[in-house]
Amino acid sequence: MDAVRAVAEPRRREILRLVWDAELSAGEIAERFDVTFGAVSQHLKVLRESGLVTLRQDGKKRFYRADREALGPLAAYLQSMWAAKLDTLAELSEAAERAERSEGTDS
């Protein structure tokens, strides 16, 4: 599977976000999702076979990290997408705070 098709799936994009700056074990990744470990393992397999994550094995544990170099131009796109989501979340939070303050002064 090519990289674009691999990151088209939302859970795989979320896995990439999780391992963007930090190496995580398969178990740590799976804990963040509401699907089975097997389902997460399949997503990790697709990402690994697409060359988008690296795998390091330490005993029985498998650790994953995003391979930004392999992502090429997709890396910048994914980072901008995640930044845009964070910007939106910050704007919503600030709007909620302003609304709370204005409700408090209306009493």
UniProtKB/TrEMBL annotation:
PROSITE patterns: HTH_ARSR_2. Keywords: DNA-binding, Transcription, Transcription regulation. Signal peptide: none annotated. Residues 1-93 form the HTH arsR-type domain. GO terms for molecular function: DNA binding; DNA-binding transcription factor activity. It comes from the Bacteria. The keyword Transcription regulation applies. InterPro entries: ArsR-like_HTH, HTH_ArsR_DNA-bd_dom, HTH_MetalResp_TranReg, WH-like_DNA-bd_sf, WH_DNA-bd_sf. CDD domains: HTH_ARSR (cd00090). NCBIfam families: HTH_metalloreg (NF033788). PANTHER family: TRANSCRIPTIONAL REGULATOR, ARSR FAMILY (PTHR33154), TRANSCRIPTIONAL REPRESSOR SDPR (PTHR33154:SF33). This is Transcriptional regulator. It comes from Streptomyces diastatochromogenes. The lineage of its organism: Bacteria, Bacillati, Actinomycetota, Actinomycetes, Kitasatosporales.
